[in-house]
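Quick start: load a record and inspect it. Here is 2OG-Fe(II) oxygenase superfamily protein:
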Amino acid sequence: MGYIKSAALEETGFVVLDSYDKPVDPKEWLDIEYVDWKSSGDTRFAPLASAKGEIECNGFWNHEPPRTDKDGVWIDAQTELAPTLTARAQEPGANVGRCRIIELQPNSYADCLYNLHQDDNNRLNPDGTGWVVRGFFNLTDDKDSYFVLRENRTDPSIEYRIALPAGAQLIVDTQRLWHAVHHQGDEPRYCLITSWTSCPELDAYIEKYNGRSTTEYYPVSEEVREAGQAEQARRDAARAAYYAEKGQKAKLAMSEA
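Running the structure step on this input writes:
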């Protein structure tokens, strides 16, 4: 039967939406409660919706009863402090699973490449239902930072780099694409991440905000790209050697973030 997917994401696995042009009080992401949760870098997360409405970030399949990343429960103590961000996550009218704000500390391009990962969005998701994808709404003005997206983690020949100024919005099939962010700057980056179930309502939302699968890509010099690729390979080899000593195979494929 297959899953219900958005045709707009078929070409490249992502769409960039029109930039969000309304003011948002930074208190909405600075004054809520964060928990330590590591995902592709030095990160913390502030959940707005979770499996049972608790301030935690675990995959829904790690709860009892285990289920896929759908039907998240809004956390009143958090959403009351972030009403605009909550409304933005709910605007498409698609089913929401996890909804969190990520705080990412500055990193290097090499860090970003090493941390490229896919998400485990659709574990336990029944065939014939909507495929879970993720929306990313950049909150801070990180003009020199960018999202890196690849079909193949170690192949730089196709690498999409999406700039992340305040208001940047994209929807990504993060189970298909390897992804991470190169965050340049002195302060943390904040971004709203929402798990949405693909459906006609999400398709209409993408159309409303002119979702496009191509955009102007953030420029990176060949020298920086080659150095980052070499460092990724070096770190991968070191990790593989570490696990080989323990008689284990290094895991690179999936993140539960």
